[in-house]
Amino acid sequence: MEQYNEVFVGMDVSKSRIAVGLALGGSAGEASFLGEIEANEVAVTKLVRRLSGKHGKLTFCYEAGPTGYGLYRLLGELGHECRVVAPSLIPRKPGDRVKTNRRDALSLARLLRAGELTAVWAPDERHEAMRDLVRGRSAAAFDLRVKRQQTGAFLLRLGRVYPGKTSWGGAHRKWLAKQTFAHLEQRIAFAELLAAMDEVRARVARLEKAIEEAVPDWSLAAMVTALMAMRGIDLVAATTILAEVGDLGRFRTPRELMAWLGLVPSEASTGDRVRRFGITKAGNGRARKALIESAWCYRFPARIGQAKLARVEAAPPAARRLAWKAQTRLTARYRALVRKGKPKAVAVTAVARELAGFIWAMRRALEQQPGA
User: Fold this and answer.
1) Boundaries of every domain in the chain
2) Could you report the per-residue pLDDT of 178-236, keeping only the tens digit for each?
3) Global pTM value
4) CATH for 7-114, options being 3.30.420.40, 1.10.10.60, 3.90.1300.10, 3.90.1150.10
5) Residues 75, 57: contact at Cβ < 8 Å?
């Protein structure tokens, strides 16, 4: 009887327990359930050593989720391959309405053996730390927007409308400081809103300073400098895009990066009928949002402002040439789409899709330059 030494292990991971399923390589039979273990290093190491003593090659997998990449790194240190799989791309039967830890572990083991699972890119510890820092700044910026909305809503209820054109600038702050209220309770509530805004604004500034200090020692520091030469991309945007996307080299073509970012049109075509809809919005929403925000800058004619000039000059020559090529093409692209009657938001999204392609090309340009 033919023996198979390769074993595929599916793990359904939660914060306290791990359900383990096992499928022998080369077999079409049912997978076996090994039970549940504690979700800690000692229990996982014990399980791996027990399986290693009985089988040859071990391949593990578990779904990406809130438990992070600690298990992935631990299994790698123990000398075994592990894949962190994308939950949204796991094949599921339409009529299957039963979900348990046991069934999930067994399903993962069988699908891993069949090669039906799609792995996500797992960052190293330093890259994950940079990602946490960038996401912390993003959360603080969101809190600031919420506090501003609450302050504006408070004033609107009382009939106070700022007469200027631009809100939350220096003139607006002076206008806020001059507001008076007849009741003590309203004065206290308004003072607390202003204090909360000041606190969150200071938090955003501290986190941006921390990003600025951390980037020079990051493995993608050269790529950050190159991306900052592109219109609409500053330090925060460049760091956000790279921290969320990770290794651009894993995308063989720019279209793969565009699809991963969810910037390609969705489609439901059958027979002779072709139906296309809005973008898929798959993949990483934070990186997609940063790209679309940057793409709004391409509404205006191509130029390099005084504030941007220093960032452009700091980039390598290849990056400067590509950044200018992107600016001239994308500004023309936006105007052409608007002339055809496309809504501005649709035109900007199309520009963001092409901007992703230029970012992919930027990495290749840096690799090919002398001394890279």
Assistant:
1) 7-114, 125-217, 221-368
2) 999 999 999 999 999 999 999 999 999 999 999 999 999 999 999 999 999 999 999 99
3) 0.91
4) 3.30.420.40
5) no
